[in-house]
User: Fold these one by one.
Assistant:
Number 1:
Amino acid sequence: MYSTPADLARYLVALLHGGAGEHGPVLQPATLASMFLPHFQPDSRLPGMGLAFELGEESGHRTAGKPGIVSGFGSAIVLAPDDGIGVFALSNTGDLSGRCPPAALARALLRRVLGLPGEAIRPGIPPRPEIWSDLCGWYGPDPGPVTNLFTRPLFGAGVEVTVHGGHLVLKPLTPVPAIRRGLRLHPDDPHDPRVFRAELPGFGMSQRVVFGEASKDAVTPPRLLIDLFSFSKRPGVRNPRRWVNAAAAAGAAAFALRHVRHHGT
């Protein structure tokens, strides 16, 4: 669907006024409210997914929104329904890599209007390194069909959780350089040491990361959840890191060879 900035502004106004626009109601207020509630929530510590809206949280403020990306164009809307504030951003740049400049801009503008700090990382929450050994390891994607096309490019063969420089770090097993270097996990809940927040460099956003414990009968392994992406802890001997490293090295070599040929001619 294509529209104009003026129409998008009318759309946000209707979303913030119970589904009613300048020409009258389109949705019942209760229907719209249900769209902002989680209908899929893999863990109670995550916002989950509403009906057509991706749910979130900005320093205690409930949010709902949706980005959109096609080659050469990006858009994003984000609402704080309880605060009566909505923001949208458009750009004539973007690609299918998952980087959507309007999404980061809309989030930053919303935080500014709400009077929040620029970053969502919560300072002052002490780390709990005594449990890090339980969290470290390789987590592979849960089995089943891939329904989100960004899962494989972003997280590839899963993620590793390690300790580096005195911090807990999440390292996606992917050839994508922007996140392959690792994401520091910052404590995000003073009452739950298994809740963290990771900043995604180059994507202009942060995501909550939560760890689930194994079931008492050990049938269900420990899990790691990033937004709506779910991973299960796997034996270290099956870690495909060396294959991912080889793929990344091959890609870098191919790029260097093309660069030499191009400048050599």
Number 2:
Amino acid sequence: MNHKKYKKQYFDAPRVDEKWLKKDFIDKPPAWVSSDMRDGNQSISKPMTKEQKMGFFKMLCKIGFKEIEIGFPAASDTDFETTRSIIEETPNDVVLQVLTQSRPDLVEKTFKAMQGVNDGIIHFYYPTSVVQREQVFQKAKKQTLQKCVDGAKMVKDAESKYNGNFRFEFSPESFTETEPEFALEVCNAVIDEINPTRKKKLIINLPATVERSTSLAFGRQIAFINQNLENRQNIILSVHPHNDRGTAVAAAEMAVLAGAERVEGTLFGNGERTGNLDLINMALNCFSQGVDPKLDFSNMPDIIDFYEKTTGMTVHARHPYAGKNVFKAYSGSHQDAIVKSFDFRKKFPQKYWNVPYIVIDPSDIGLNSEKDIICINSQSGKGGVDYVLRQYGIQLERDELIKFASVIKQIADKEARELPYDEVKEAFNSRK
């Protein structure tokens, strides 16, 4: 492992007003944008069919997403046809977003796909990072900036040819690997070309196309852009974090504290490489702090089932909030504390959820709030066994409980598995 062939590949942002660093709490949710049908779809081995995309779209609407990036219409016939079909079935309060490269033929095909849309966002982008400029496109800063402005001109010119209510979004791709001052110059040039207004705001989207830095460094990059954008009152500042360092959620939260009003991501973080920002994770982080995320995950098992069948992906057993094991307690000390907390709360009802080791009430996302928590294996103790027995109306004295818990531990240890509740009861009934 030769660490000397690596170096820092992001740029520190010039320091600006850092009052945002004094914040430690997101008191209202950002605007959520699902990119499952575009960014998520382009990263799975078997892209969704038109029928699957239509089903996914309906699920996203049911969850409560008001902005959905539905595809890359110029990339395939499936995306083009799906876009046309979704336009006809979109609720009036849902905004449709599509992505296009800044090329005349692709821009034209994108507008053609979105013709007649009630509220649509044309998302155009161009790479601005040092590595892309030098190694991929071999263009200087001046040429790169002009390409971004040309993209803005393209979408403006194309808009007049098609019927529909269009807005624009611009992304300097690989923003985090771009010098902040140059990224700002590019964004302001695009703003000047688009000339957004209060009624037709421009979305400036800053993607961590590849996550390179700590979440604090990303937050400082966002703060720098946020505080220096021209025509700021007519700009919606958005972020699109990827998860290469495993900190996309933290980065997105930092970005919101730093001034971002909108975040793009996917369910369960599906996306290229290590994935995108996990919108479920971030939304339920808000929820766990008493902030309504304006998204409904009260039937998580059904969402997981549909997601896995449609994408072919699997939700990890330890996935935050959603994994099948995240609320399970096997450790004896954990079980003891949890059971005592349950008993206390039954005697003294509490206004707020505050149970040891359990961040949110599992029943809020469609799981059993108790029986899915206390699980018996060789690591369990008397508290867990006591809880299981009480489900059958059996309550033992302390000495007898300690003795029986030892028997259960031996069985679980010998068989090296979790013991279902009925087997614990059967062991009790068959004891000598």
Number 3:
Amino acid sequence: MRRSSLALIALVLFVIFGCRGKAPDGPAPNSGESWSVTSWGERYEVFAETEPLVAGRSATCNAHVTVLEGFAPLRAGSVTVVLRGSGPDLVFRQVGPKREGIFPVKLEPTTEGTFEMFFQIDGAAGDEELAGGRVRVGTAASPGGVDGDRGVTGGANAMSFLKEQQWRTIFATAPVTQGTLGESVSGPARVIPPAGGEVTLTATFDSTVAPSPWPYTGLVVAKGNTMLRLLPRIGGRSLPDLQADATSLGAEVEAAQRRVERLTELLRVEATSVAELERARATLAGLEARLRSAREGVEAAGGRFGASPGASVVAPWTGRVAEVSVSPGQTISAGAPLVRLVKASPVWIILALRPDDAARVKGRPSGLLIRRPGSPESIQFGPKDLRIISQSPEVNVRTASIDLIVEIDRSVSDLPIGTGVEAELLLPGERRGIVVPASALVDDSGVVVAYVQIEGESFARKEVHVLARQGEQVLIEGLTPGERLVTLGGGAVRRSALLSSGAPEGHVH
């Protein structure tokens, strides 16, 4: 335990000092405090930690550059810091990072004064200039830094999440904006075949299932195609058994007839006895009687089912085999289930709605969103793909919900029969407000929160209230347009804050 604790402390110290340390070849730190600014562009984010600015002295600006697409550190390129004032621009450039994403730019301002600071990034994502705000270059007695109010600060509630941590996890940020979210109702749903779109074919007589042809689950069959053949059973015996008996008896009758003829010739020359001939004739008569009976059974079966022995089980309409209930050669009774067939499309869903939500469903819906279990993304259907079939006239006493049946113009390949889903029916009308991705919300011990980025490595926790959800978009209260929202990785920020505070992490939802 002591070794692991020491290793953890060493790692934390390495990350902190590795991120906040100055460039290795820089001069001794100036008096005063270091300062930082954060700038966001379309392609990059720059978090610059800078030593105090003094005219005539060198200061290091450690620019942490993040490529916003993929939220990865900038691994190659250059960072140029430009100070624009009343005179010529002061330009300082660093080619290549000291470490991945960190560019130590040497600033050597020659005159005092107030300047507008800009970062010019040249990297794989393209070139971009980002405004860094107003800064002041001072004197040794009064070192300079950020000039004026830099905006929102986290105060005592700010939590740290270093760039090295951000770059090593799934992480992203985006500005908070206003948007619109359509009206909708949602609830659990189940995919079923349409009315008349499922049939179980059964045996119409006692029979044996022929081994060919043979269906299988998922087989696509056209209307009228033969799926199985049934061989009839007469007196508990199948037609093949009767045919085999008739063939065997026919051979025995022929042999008995030849024996009677031979014994008749032998009797003429007194080479056998009358008794032997009579026994042979009696055997032949018995075999002929049995053969007539067997042939009558075969003829009865053939007369009942046509020239081709047996009966075909055909598909009543085009569909797919959902279940096969018998095995080749199995003996079955009349009424036994054989094959279950479902229509391939369309499909229905039964959507369970709260009674107040069901009352809002009027007219044609604007669309439908379906989320399958375990899938983070929704499947969206437009209004042309949907049709409301019916709404239950009563509340289900077990679920306290009203069932709504919706037809979807899709195949069972897209939505398998029996699938349980979360369905959201989109209705006419919109609501305006703060719309954020659902991935930005974190369940913090039962409280829904989001995390906003105050500056590069500083974050604040905000409690939010969910007003509505549509697919992966959520309408909320509790955020302000212009704030920088953590859209991916909020859970990692929370865990980092818990670990740094020494609080037990608990169960992360």
